[in-house]
Amino acid sequence: MSSPYLEHANTDKAAHIWRYTPWKRAHPTGTINEVPQSESPEISISLVDGTSVPDGITIEPATESDIERLGHELDFDHGTAAPKFIAAVAKKTMILKIENKIKVETPLIVTITTSGDICASRLLIDIGSQVEAEIITLIEGNANWTGILREGQYGSNSIINDVVTQITGNRLVRCDALSLCRDAQVKAGTVNASSSQAKIDIRHWLNEPGSSLKVNGSILSSNENHLDSHIEITHSGRQTHSRLEWHSACGGKSNTTGTGMLRIDAGAKGADAGQLFHNLLLSEKAKANSIPELEVLESEVVGCGHGTANGPIDEQQLFYLSTRGLDEEQARAALIAAFLNTPLSDMGSNLLHGWLVERIEKHLNLI
Amino acid sequence: MSVTPLLKIEGLKASIDETEILKGIDLEILPGEVHAVMGRNGSGKSTTAHVLMGHPDYEVTNGNVKLDGEDLLEMESYERARAGVFLSFQYPHSVPGLQVGNFLRRSVSAINGEEAAKGPEFRNLLKEGMEQLGLDRSFLARYVNDGFSGGEKKRFEILQMMLIKPKLAILDETDSGLDIDGIRTVAQGVDAAIRGSNSGALIITHYNRILEHVKPDKIHVLIDGKIVKSGGPELANKLEERGYDWIEKEVMANE
Ligand SMILES: Nc1ncnc2c1ncn2[C@@H]1O[C@H](COP(=O)(O)OP(=O)(O)OP(=O)(O)O)[C@@H](O)[C@H]1O
Ligand SMILES: [Mg+2]
Questions:
Q1: CATH architecture of B7-93+165-244
Q2: Is the pLDDT of residue A365 over 70?
Q3: I want to staple B94 with a disulfide (CB 3.0 to 4.6 A). Which of A57, A110, A187, B146 is the partner?
Q4: How far apart are CA A292 and CA A241, in angstroms?
């Protein structure tokens, strides 16, 4: 079988994206020249309140022209192996389409249920212009290895909260490649609590003027989890705005990595960007790495900053809660929940937030 | 028949990083009493409050403290809170991500039991308290002390006191940063909670403004980690008029 993947199977090991989880380790079999047999997950859509999905929102098999129009997998540079691999291994490509001007009041859930040994899916996202919607992509099921590639675009002037969550699971490789059209306002959230191993690679392109992006991450690692996220934001349109806030609570013997790449292309005048990685260290054996990187090729920018913070639970906060009657376990749980809640509560509406909190709260006792 | 004091502190000494800050404090509050502690900056007022609450940074090197006859120093901070001690912090800590409403429920249920933190009674108490303190409903969705103004922090501490209904309330400069209406509300809150009950309060302050509203039974002057003088409410006016120098002189003359 020949595929564009095989030409890119060897990754640049020096690039920081591959430093902590080499592709050999993320690949389902470890034999990187292999594109093994896979299963396709079940994918369905529903609304959180159980009412029926309105007209104008569909999920169906994608056509060749959809893939040509929305596929981004070739735009990845040093990270090409993973998205191309998923494109090669996935048997089906689906497309989630929301037509122009559709406004959905309650969050839409895209449930991806995996099974079997290797389970992969390519999902195109086609959000029309002036759409207002909240989308939760819920990855669940018991496949040993799951690969998800999401590619597509948010239409002009759309207002979208797009959250991808895997609360428990085995091994995951997830690649997102999404572009924001003119004046689109997007909040892209990731919630991950205890995948055994996750390699997450999220890329956004702000190619057109006036678009605005907030990337939020709430990551809870425990036991021997190995969670590695790479977040890349490219500003090439004028007057574009982005912020990244990535919080990881790291317990047990887990290993958590966050690498960021913030790129401001020449011509992106008035770009305003910032990224922050924050790790809460909950045990002595937990490891956390965060490496934000900047590449600024335009001089007329409003702001461009990055930072990282690492530390254990704050003793003064712990004391404050204990004076309010919380024993150590209760106080720690409250503080971990609070830490994860800062980005979580910024992911979308109260309804969406409540739905996420309900699911993540059960996992706080894993730590 | 003698009453068991609500709070009895004897010979309390405490250090931080080997530096002795409290150098022997004796103080007794009977049920239903309100006491005030006054003293210059750095005299050890907040240290006293923190030590009573079990702050891990301080080491108690001498003395004992009894709450209703029970050894307070033996207890963990959360046990002291559950036993009925409440500290309104001079500088309360912020907890970004933890919403006020959620925090109040967790705290009231930890101290007064799960039942106390739900149902219409709790909601009414909360609503009334917030109205009295001039806090808007949207306050419940904010993060604990995060971005609060000085006055909001103090009001929030008092709201917690109103919901928890402690046996012993320690107010560490809750009056600073409050306007006169705020002070009146705090005073009413303390009065309502303490007077005619078996509770008590220890009010730490620099100013006698709050003491005009909550008439204290006793005033103690703290200098360099020791209570050097105790007296009735008239002492507060004298301190406000004349400062602390005269007391220091008096103490030195006696030594
Ligand atoms: N963490 C600390 N490390 C070292 N010294 C400390 C620490 N905290 C307080 N102190 C010292 O202890 C002394 C008493 O401080 P404390 O905060 O109790 O004073 P206070 O009477 O409450 O003052 P204020 O009126 O300013 O609130 C001061 O000399 C202070 O510098
Ligand atoms: Mg003080």
A1: 3-Layer(aba) Sandwich (3.40)
A2: no
A3: B146
A4: 17
Compute φ and ψ for B68, nearest 5 degrees. 55, 35
The answer to whether position A302 is within a domain reads yes
Contacting residues of B for A326, CB less than 8 Å apart? 78, 106-107, 110
Cα–Cα dist A169/A194, whole Å: 7
- The answer to whether residue A367 scores a pLDDT higher than 70 is no
Q: How far is the CA of B45 from the centre of ligand 1 (A)?
A: 8
How do beta strands B85-88 and B168-172 pair?
Answer: parallel
Residue A347 falls within a domain, yes or no? no
Distances (CA, A) of B157 to B5, B31, B117, B178, B210: 25, 22, 17, 12, 16
Q: pLDDT (tens digit, 9 = 90+) per residue, A231-272? A: 999 999 999 999 999 999 999 999 999 999 999 999 999 999
Q: Which residues, 6+ apart, have CB-to-CB distance to B139 below 8 Å?
A: B100, B130, B152, B156
Distance (Å) from CA B70 to ligand 1 centroid: 27
- How do residues A33-64 score in pLDDT, each as one tens digit? 999 999 999 999 999 999 999 999 999 999 99
Number of residues that make up chain B: 255
Segment B77-97 shows an average pLDDT of: 97
The stretch A283-303 carries a mean pLDDT of: 92
**Shortest-distance atom of ligand 1 to CA B57:** 1
| ipTM given for this complex | 0.96
Considering only the C-alpha atoms of chain A, give the largest distance between any 2 of them, rounded to a whole number of Å. Answer: 65
Give the distance from residue A193's alpha carbon to the nearest chain B alpha carbon, in angstroms. Answer: 17
The ligand minimizing its distance to the Cα of B222 is 1
Confirm if B24 and B226 have CB atoms less than 8 A apart.
yes
Cβ–Cβ of B97/A338 closer than 8 Å? yes
Contact of A326 with chain B, judged by CB distance below 8 Å, is answered with yes
Q: Is residue A127 part of a domain?
A: yes
Indicate whether residue B149 lines ligand 1 (CB < 6 A).
no
Beta partners for residue A261, in sequence order: A232, A293
- B205 Cβ inside 6 Å of ligand 1: no
The answer to whether residue A354 neighbours chain B at the CB level (below 8 Å) is: no
The protein residues having their C-beta less than 5 angstroms from ligand 2 (an ion) are B 45-46, 90
Q: Are A338 and B96 a contacting pair at CB < 8 A?
A: yes
Half-sphere exposure of A171 (CA within 13 A, CB side): 16
Q: What domain count does chain A have?
A: 1
pLDDT in tens, A146-193: 999 999 999 999 999 999 999 878 999 999 999 999 999 999 999 998
Kindly report the pTM of this predicted structure.
0.93
Q: What is the DSSP letter of B2?
A: P
Tell me which chain B residues have a C-beta less than 8 angstroms from the C-beta of A342.
Answer: 96-97, 143
List the domain boundaries for chain B: 7-93+165-244
> pLDDT-based confidence at A76, cuts 50/70/90?
low
Q: Is B42 in the pocket of ligand 1 (CB under 6 A)?
A: yes
Query: Could you read off the pLDDT of B211-240 as tens digits, one per residue?
Result: 988 889 999 999 999 999 999 988 988 888
B87 Cβ inside 6 Å of ligand 1: no
Contact across the interface for B95 and A337, Cβ inside 8 Å:
no
B8-47 in b/e burial notation, b at 16+ Cβ within 10 A?
bbeebbbbeeeebbbbebebebbbbbbbbbbbeeebbbbb
The residue range of the domain holding A88 is 3-314
